[in-house]
Amino acid sequence: MTHKRLSLLADIGGTNTRVALCDGAEVLTSSIRRFRNAEYSDLSGVLKSYLEAADDIECVGACVAAAGPVRDGVATMTNLNWTIDPVSVARATGAKTVSILNDLQAQGHALGHLDPSALTEIRAGKPAGPHAAQLVIGVGTGFNAAAVYNTAAGRLVTPSECGHITMPIRSEDDLRLSQSVEKAHGFPGVEDVLSGRGLERLYAWHQSGNAQEITKSASDIISSMQTGDDPLASASVATFSRILGAVAGDLALVHLPFGGIYLIGGVARAMQPYLVEHGFNETFRDKGRFADFVDTFSISTVEDDYAALIGCAQHLSHLTK
After folding, report:
1. How far apart are the first and last CA of the chain?
2. CA-CA-CA-CA torsion for 307, 67, 155, 247, nearest 10 degrees?
3. Looking at the structure, do residues 155 and 63 belong to the same domain, yes or no?
4. Same domain assignment for residues 274 and 240
C-alpha cells in the first residue's frame, strides 16, 4: 500500500489544539481539525485521534507549537496541565523529525509567508533591510512575545515568557490597578491585564465602585464596544489599549524590531479597531527623548488564525531539507 508522505503540525492553545498536515512548507488547509483539550489527557491522544481519522498518512515529520515555555525541547503548558516532549510526539506520530516550539516562535517563523491581506497596519514605520529584526506580540488567552532575527544562516526566533514581567506603572490609576492585581494574584504581571481574562479583570476593576456590579466576558465587552452601550466597557478597553501601547513600546526598545512589530492572537484581533482611538499610539511613543526613535517601528495585526501552523510548516521544511 502506498502512503502519502506528509508532515503533521499542531498548534496548542489553552483551550483548543489545531492539527493539520503539510506537504513541504505548504499547509493543507482542508486537513485542519480542532480538538478540545479538556477531552484529552495529553497531546498524544489528540495526535493519535487525528491520524486514525486521516487517510493512509506516513508522517515524516512533526512540529508542535505550545503556549508555554520550551526548555531543552520540552514544552510545559502555561494554562494547561500538559507536558510535551519529542519522544512522546514521535511515538504518537511515527515521525523521525520532531520539533517543539513556543507558540510565539511559530508565529515568528510565519512572518514573510502570510498573505498581505492578513495584515492590518496600525502604525506606519520606516523601511528596513531584509535582515532587520522583527517582533511578534501575542495577546489571547495569555500574553507573550518573540523576537525574529533573519540572519545569513537562516531565521532565528528567540523564546521568552514576557507575559510574566511586571506591568508598567505610569500614573496613580496604574498604581491602584497594580495593587489590585497584586492583591488578587500575588504579583502584578502583564498577562494579568493584557489577555482575555485581563480585559475581564479591567472591567471588574473599573466597576468596583458600582453598587450593582456586573461581570462581563471579554467577548461581551468587545460586543459592547461595537454597540457603544456600556461606558465601563469603553473605559476598560481604553486602559487595555494604553497599557498594551506602553508594553509594546518597552519591548520595541529591548529588541529594536526595525522590520516591524506584529500583534497576533484572538484578543489582539478583536481589539485592533479600538487601539488607536483609545491611546495605544500615545503610550507606545511615550519614551521621553526616544519618542521619535520608536516611530521607526511599524505595527500591524495578523488576521490569519492559522499563522502558527504556517510557521510550523516553514520551520519543519527547513529541518527536513
Report:
1. 25
2. 90
3. no
4. yes
Q: Indicate whether 114 belongs to any domain.
A: no
Q: Using CA atoms in the order 79, 85, 89, 94, what is the torsion angle rounded to 10 degrees?
A: 180
Is residue 303 within 8 Å of residue 116, measured between CB atoms? no
E strand or H helix at 280:
helix 280-284
Residue with cell 523576537: 147
Crossing angle (nearest 10°) for helices 218-227 and 196-206: 70
pLDDT tens, residue order, the chain (321 aa): 446 889 999 999 888 999 999 999 999 999 999 999 999 999 999 999 999 998 788 999 999 999 889 999 999 987 788 999 999 999 999 999 999 999 999 999 999 999 999 999 999 999 998 899 999 999 998 899 999 999 888 899 998 999 999 999 999 999 999 999 999 889 999 999 999 999 999 999 998 866 556 689 999 999 999 999 999 999 999 999 999 999 999 999 999 999 999 999 999 999 999 999 999 999 999 999 999 999 999 999 999 999 999 999 999 998 877
Q: Which CATH number belongs to the domain containing residue 159 in this structure?
A: 3.40.367.20
**Polymer length in residues for the chain:** 321
Q: Which domain holds residue 54?
A: 4-109+306-319
Indicate if 30 and 151 belong to the same structural domain: no
Same domain, 192 and 85: no
Mode of pairing for the β-strands spanning 97-102 and 57-66 = parallel
Structural domain count of the chain: 2
| Shared domain check, 311 and 293 | no
One domain for residues 103 and 124: no
